[in-house]
């Protein structure tokens, strides 16, 4: 008899959590202005403030994670929320990690978009137009 109220409570809680989620707000926004990950903060990390993007494998299509390195000089121009998260009790920015398995979209699509936008909008990043090397983060 005790199991029935517990089962009803569990089903009600699961339904509440499911419908409480906001399906219209994307977790990650990738565009010409940079990357926004609302799990970290509401502000964008512009491409020009990144020292590099490294994928867990050499090919972004098979990567399991993307690590974004933010340069230290960008601290004054990022949002307060991003600064609080990325520089959390540190003099140097911590890398931002985007792992697969956290999204409804296939991670390979996210990784390819990050790679393409980074190469297109980061000054000095390696792309077909300028064939220069991507900077290696310190």
Strand order, largest beta sheet: 3-4-5
> Structural class of the helices, strands and pairings?
alpha+beta
Please trace the helix and strand order, writing H or E for each element.
HEEEEHEH
Radius of gyration: 19 Å
Helix segment count?
3
Outline type: elongated
Instruction: Give average pLDDT, whole number.
Output: 79
Percent helix: 25-40%
Q: Number of DSSP strands?
A: 5
Task: Give the distance, in angstroms, between the N- and C-terminal Cα atoms.
Answer: 62 Å
State which percent range the strand residues make up: 15-25%
Runs in which pLDDT lies below 50 for 5 or more consecutive residues are 127-138
Question: Major sheet: size, sense and barrel closure?
Answer: 3 strands, antiparallel
Describe this structure in words.
With 138 residues, the chain is of the alpha+beta class. It has a domain at 28-122. It is built from three helices and five strands. A hairpin with a 2-residue loop joins strand 1 and strand 2. It is elongated and about 65 Å long. It starts with a helix and ends in a 17-residue tail after the last helix.
Please describe the structure with a list of short key phrases separated by commas or semicolons:
disordered C terminus, 3-stranded antiparallel beta sheet, two-stranded antiparallel sheet, single chain, alpha+beta, 138 residues, 5 strands
What's the topology here?
Blueprint: H1 3-20, E1 28-31, E2 34-37, E3 50-55, E4 65-70, H2 80-86, E5 96-99, H3 107-121
Antiparallel strand pairs: 1-2, 3-4, 4-5
């Amino acid at each position: 008899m005790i199991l029935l109220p517990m089962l009803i409570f569990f089903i009600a809680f699961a339904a509440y959590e499911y419908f409480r989620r906001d399906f219209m707000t994307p977790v990650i926004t990738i565009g010409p202005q940079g990357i926004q990950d609302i799990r970290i903060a509401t502000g964008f990390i512009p491409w020009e403030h990144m020292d590099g993007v490294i994928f867990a494998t050499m090919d972004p299509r098979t990567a399991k994670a993307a690590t974004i390195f933010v340069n230290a000089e960008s601290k004054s121009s990022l949002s307060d929320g991003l600064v609080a998260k990325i520089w959390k009790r540190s003099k140097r920015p911590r890398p931002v990690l985007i792992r697969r398995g956290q999204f409804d979209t296939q991670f390979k699509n996210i990784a390819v978009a990050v790679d393409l936008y980074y190469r297109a909008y980061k000054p000095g990043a390696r792309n077909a137009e300028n064939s220069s090397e991507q900077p290696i983060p310190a």
